[in-house]
Amino acid sequence: MSLLRFDDVAIHLGGREILSPTSFAVQPGEFVCIIGPSGCGKTTLLRAAAGFVAPSAGAVLRHGEPVAGPSREVAFVFQDYGRALLPWRTVEGNISLALEAAGVPPAERRARIARVLDTVGLAQHAAKFPVQLSGGMQQRVQIARCLAQQPELMMMDEPFGALDAMTRESLQDELSRLVRDSGLTVLFVTHDLEEAIYLGDRVIALRANPTPANPSLAAMIEVPIPRPREQLSAKEHPDFLRLRRELYRFLEYE
């Protein structure tokens, strides 16, 4: 059974069709990237998958059951890491939020927090406040907080979009390692074609202003580049170059 499935999911907001009936499935352990122009419904689709938005038609299913609302089995990483963290709490305190919400006993929190901080390379920064961290480190804290939930599915809404190129590539590699080591399933929204191909097992392209003749789902493409991937060699791989051209053709006229 698929971990997550979209069955003819359509979403209307403000009298406008944001997403026309769309169907696809996400398998356990799969890393699926969603790309498309602004206004095509990428974030709305992600929020529907997380249970934040109800479909206007169709259904989102997790393990075959309708998604009726947010779940502790699903973690959500937002693009705006600055607003996602509480400035009056330390790194350790921000990560503790997820454990407090889940009712984890205080005696268990410290060890779990220490594990996830070590996982994301922030073990030496537990007592710092967000303002004392770089943007990349703040985003690591948000990812660590999600990992502390021990979710089976992680939703990521352009999490590296506001970071500089070097930090972005570093976090892409770190995320790939985390997903590989943990077996997490990831649904990842991005505007960046290269990021989608580099991270994804599969890339789903959406188009804006869907019509019956041109529905929201423009393309669904497997990424055959072997893992683990490395920034330079992966981006020089013939399949990487081919997929970048192919996806660009889908999006350049949208």
From TrEMBL:
Domain (ABC transporter) ranges: 4-233
Lineage: Bacteria, Pseudomonadati, Pseudomonadota, Betaproteobacteria, Burkholderiales
Pfam families attached to this UniProt entry: ABC_tran (PF00005)
Protein name per UniProt: ABC transporter ATP-binding protein
Family classification: Belongs to the ABC transporter superfamily.
Ranges annotated as spanning the membrane: none
Record bears the keyword Translocase: no
GO molecular function annotations of the record: ATP binding; ATP hydrolysis activity
Keywords from the named record: ATP-binding, Cell membrane, Membrane, Nucleotide-binding, Transport
